[in-house]
UniProtKB/TrEMBL annotation:
Organism: Peribacillus simplex
Coiled-coil region: none
Region (Disordered): 1-24
Superkingdom classification of source: Bacteria
Family to which the UniProt record says this protein belongs: Belongs to the GerABKA family.
Subcellular location(s) per record: Membrane
Keywords: Membrane
Pfam family, one: GerA
Name of the protein: Spore germination protein GerUA
A biological-process GO annotation: spore germination
Topology with respect to the bilayer: Multi-pass membrane protein
Cellular-component GO terms for this entry: membrane
Length: 326
């Protein structure tokens, strides 16, 4: 009796493994030419989540061509999806009656969709990454290629005064949880083409956007390459905050002093970049990392940038003296 249940359990486990392998192989293959098959894969992969919106469109000039738009509710800019995507496809006169599916793909990408950043994808990995980043996906029946339209948006916190590093004299702008907004805040201060940015995805599950920023010609190439190598060497499921990055790339762990600096002030990041440091932006947090960090740097206030050099130096010397003789 015991062996019977054991064999039954092993068989059931094997069946589940085979079904899982078949499911994975089905999802990891290229996009199919059938909209029905593609939608089944999307529903299977996302668990038929209700926030995945599927809109099937009728092209007035050519109802024979089936078109479907997918997007994630809350991650897209709704006016862009409605006005510049859905209505453009449904009412655009370029989609004539005799146009073929592959011709419709080209017409939609070049003439119909009036949004920037329209590109084609053929594999599911890139498609899901774009979909869950706030882009909209366009499927055309009979074509094994999908269109990705940039419609990122949704509710975000506005730029406010930072709750930490408060100053009497200086900027009142603070970083938000959006990488794009944070990078733009620094670009407003440093209007130079030498301000370079490189982005990557870290986290096998979260696929968090991480960007590094530095001024070409001021930051040492060795430091920039070291930062890149350490970030690329991170192998972790999730990055929820810049503190994850800080712990994974720092040199010394057994020390009470921080080895990386963090701030939510764009002016402090700009000052660090002008001194040759590298900034690390992590999407989802208002705290930006600055590397490398020196011990003397933690005796400096952001207001020191705005004071006369003799006054700022005297105040900094006073801070160091209090720390040493206290």
């Amino acid at each position: 009796m015991v062996s019977f249940f054991k064999q039954k359990g092993q068989k059931s486990k094997k069946q589940k493994t085979d079904e899982k392998d078949q499911s994975i192989s089905k999802i990891t293959q290229n996009i199919d030419s059938s909209i029905t098959t593609n939608l089944d894969i999307v529903k299977q992969k996302t668990g038929s989540s209700p926030d995945i919106i599927i809109r099937t469109l009728k092209i007035s000039q050519n109802p024979q061509i089936k078109t479907t738009i997918l997007y994630v509710q809350g991650l897209v800019d709704n006016p862009s999806v409605t006005d510049f995507l859905i209505e453009s496809i449904m009412k655009n006169p370029h989609l004539k009656e005799k146009v073929l599916p592959h011709e419709a793909l080209e017409v939609i990408s070049k003439d119909v969709v009036s949004l920037g950043g329209v590109e084609t994808v053929m594999d599911w990995e890139k498609l899901f990454l774009s979909l869950l980043s706030g882009d909209s996906i366009i499927f055309i029946d009979g074509i094994n290629i999908a269109l990705v339209a940039s419609t990122k948006g949704g509710e975000r916190r506005s730029v406010q005064e930072p709750s930490t590093n408060s100053v009497v004299r200086g900027s009142r702008e603070g970083f938000t949880e959006s990488n794009a907004t944070n990078i733009a805040l620094v670009r407003r201060i440093i209007n130079s083409p030498d301000l370079w940015i490189e982005s990557m995805k870290i986290g096998t599950v979260t696929n968090t956007d991480v960007s590094i920023m530095y001024i070409n010609g001021i930051a040492k190439k060795g430091i920039v390459e070291e930062v890149k190598e350490r970030l690329k060497g991170i192998n972790i499921d999730s990055i929820l905050e810049s503190g994850y990055i800080e712990q994974l790339i720092e040199d010394q762990v057994m020390t009470p002093f921080p080895t990386l600096d963090h701030t939510e002030r764009p002016d402090k990041v700009a000052g660090g970049l002008l001194e040759g440091r590298v900034a690390i932006f992590v999407n989802g947090t208002p705290f930006v990392l600055l590397v490398p960090a020196l011990f003397i740097q933690f005796f400096q206030s952001v207001e020191d940038y705005y004071a006369r050099f003799d006054i700022a130096s005297s105040i900094r010397f006073l801070r160091i003296s209090i720390f040493l003789f206290r």
